[in-house]
Write a structure and sequence with these properties.
Number of helices: 5
CATH architecture of the largest domain: Roll
Structural class: alpha+beta
CATH class of the largest domain: Mainly Beta
Number of domains: 2
Shape: elongated
Order of helices and strands: HEHEEEEEHEEHHE
Number of strands: 9
């Protein structure tokens, strides 16, 4: 392993459904956050995207799980093994939890003890992106520069586009769409009008082979 690789760190980072779609379309290569802990991100570090997900299916014979992702019409990855789960304890927790959830909804298995539905039609609940484990992630990013601080209103026309927005001028406010999104996410802790200091992350999407 090269020195640069050994120094690489990983960070989980939350993205909403619309932002996930922009990343998948390679239209979003920057993000701005209030969380100063992200200043630890350096060029070459990896980011794994936390997004809204659910249990799409499971196979108790192989201890593997299929994951649905809400952002783009319930896209699915199947089948995933849970790392470091030699005794199957983690898998069993998801299995029992999911069966209990289905029972409360009045959903019963067939005569063979199997639940059946078409891919993308899982009745299991959507789970918060905050609690997505790394093994369930499907999107991986690489930081292309060290994280930096700037005032949110210092964003440039070029960076608005890298945030995934077309440049526009509405009501004499060239940052109208980005500012509106910012306030929808940060109006309580750091509204646009207060021009808070933010962490700027630049990244590119990379591929990672799933087990």
């Amino acid at each position: 392993m090269e020195d640069g690789e050994s120094a690489m760190k990983e960070h989980g980072i939350l993205f909403s459904d619309p932002m996930v779609l922009l990343i998948l379309a390679d239209l979003k290569t920057q993000t701005r956050r209030l969380d100063k802990r992200l200043l630890k991100v350096k060029s070459g570090d990896r980011l794994w995207v936390r997004e809204t997900w659910r249990i799409g299916a499971w196979d108790e014979d192989t201890s593997r799980i299929a994951i649905d992702y809400r952002s783009n019409n319930y896209a699915r990855i199947e089948w995933l093994e849970i790392p470091d789960d030699d005794d199957g304890e983690k898998f069993n927790q998801y299995w029992i939890q999911t069966c209990d959830e289905l029972a409360t909804k009045g959903i019963k298995p067939d005569t063979n003890g199997k639940y059946r539905w078409k891919p993308g039609q899982s009745p299991c609940r959507w789970r918060s992106s905050r609690y997505m484990p790394r093994w369930a992630a499907r999107i991986y990013l690489e930081a292309t520069a060290d994280a930096r601080l700037e005032k949110v209103q210092e964003i440039s026309e070029e960076d608005v586009k890298k945030e995934g927005f077309e440049w526009d001028v509405i009501a004499d406010e060239p940052f109208y769409r980005f500012a509106k999104l910012w306030d929808s996410l940060n109006s309580k802790k750091g509204p646009w009008k207060d021009n808070p200091e933010v962490v700027v992350l630049k990244f590119r999407r990379i591929k990672e082979k799933k087990s």
